[in-house]
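Risk register update: the risk of archive-format incompatibility is retired. Evidence:
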Amino acid sequence: MQIFFQPWQRQLFLYSRSKRTGIYWARTTDDIPWWESTFSFRILFHFWTRDLPVQLVHAGAMARNGSGFIITGQSGSGKSTSCLQLLRSGYQYLGDDYIWVEQSGEAPSVHMLFQTAKVEPDNFERRFPDWASFITNRETYRDQKAIFHIHEHFPELTTRQARVNAILLPRVTGERATTFEKASPSGALFAMAPTTLHHLPHKRDISYQKLKKLTSDLPAYQWKLGYDPGEFLQSFIDFTSHEFSWN
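Archived output:
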């Protein structure tokens, strides 16, 4: 039995490895933090996948025609904004915060686990004001984050899984143009591992080895994000058309 208790949140996670049964407990519904609805049972999924060739990853993912990219980095790196901007442009959404990555078979695959997107209040008001009617938490988003149920509003642009082509490491540059640059496996691991391992309790050494294998098996690219939305999209189209046959 694996147990994770967070006294300051007054919630308890229990998982039986022999029965493959998980329990999430809170004293009252008021004790459930607002962000739990955006990645529900994340801790239980982590316990479950300990013995599987699967890892929960703090990252986003987008796809087209069955092929996709993992988009990862620390909070504030631009991964959520990038995912939602690509969604606006017709790419398929698999997640913008936590994703399920399987490493069995010929190539890694990414699966949509949570279809809820979160955007910081100022970022929402600056870049996504036309989505105001989509906000789930309209009364409280300024104290939390703006939450959107992607499948509800863009059902045709969600997909269950995709083969992973590469890992993209977004970084806001302040420049106009958006560019791509080859990154090392260690750079991808450094972008992906710290926040993933910080969020997930117990057996982090096992998760680290899974992340290390993932970043060794896939090419990685620095995604230097510019502020021009037109150039952002065109550079992504040019990059994927040149590097990968998925467009």
